[in-house]
Prior knowledge:
Helix content of chain A: 55-70%
Helix content of chain B: 10-25%
CATH superfamily of one domain in chain B: Phenylacetic acid degradation B
CATH class of chain A: Mainly Alpha
Distance between the termini of chain B: 48 Å
Shape of chain A: globular
CATH superfamily of chain A: Ferritin, core subunit, four-helix bundle
Oligomer: heterodimer
Amino acid sequence: xxxxxxxxxxxxxxxxxxxxxxxxxAEWCSRGPILEExxxxxxxxxxxxxxxxxxxxxxSTLTDNHLSADDIAFLRSEREYSxxxxxxxxxxxxxxxxxxxxxxxxxxxxxxxxxxxxxxxxLKGLSEKALKEVKYHIRHSSEWLIRFGNGTSESKxxxxxxxxxxxKYTDDMFEMDEVDNELISTxxxxxxxxxxxxxxxxxSEILKEAKLTKPSNGLSIKGGYKGIHTEHLGHILxxxxxxxxxxxxxxx
Amino acid sequence: MEKDNQFPQWEVFIQIKNGxxxxxxxxxxxxxxxxxxxxxxxxxxxxxxxxxxxVVKTDDIAATSAEEEAEFFDPAxxxxxxxxxxxxxxxGSTNI
Lengths: 252, 96
């Protein structure tokens, strides 16, 4: 695989992660447990859309097919999305959503931190900006985990169940293939095995503080980066793409 | 009025830039002070309104009541000599 194709694929994975998680989080709009959280979650959703947009813009400049960032975001089919599986999981209750946010944000922070050393100036710049946002996302979700875990038996049970359920999708974030190998050899991206080690450590620290049990590694479900998704992604796309499909080219 | 069944209420003070005072912006609900700061950030600084935040539990603020208004504030009404209206400004001190 040549470097340019690998870079396009790599960026698509990263942008799709942001877009799909942002879309999921936006589902909380007007349904938050309290007004303050409603705003917090939609703020974070908009951060993620912003990150996705800048990466799609970059992809658009890398490809020769004249697709705009909007075309890439809204006009692909399910198998062409290469987000990791965790971000497409349904929101569940508030504890489930916070557990998801925490596990993903912890990954994203380490990934963006590694990309600060990338040879690709655009990726480096994007990561610098995204990092400030992602650090807040970790703070927001981890403070909730700590409170759920140290709260009532109900809150602790709910968040522990959520972690147990989501855990089998976390390995998928660290999957590597020829895309990663090409970019690692050219100094554009970095080994996700190293990021996994750090992720494991920082997640364990917060779970300890939250008095929650880190689920054991058993079954793991993978395939997101290759476009093999859970049944949930199709439903997200149906809603997200409706407007562009029904009214092609519609703009605000 | 229906009882407020959300988290306790906190008052939010925002400093717009360094050196200016923290000004009251509004209130938020939160379980504790750390969360109150986060909620204040999400609600009151999302359009780049501030550089620093204070929160204080609404219950911890001592306030004057409407009944006390007259004895607290009316006596200042006729003490015009407490304002600097009668001083002549030196020439050139236009920016004071």
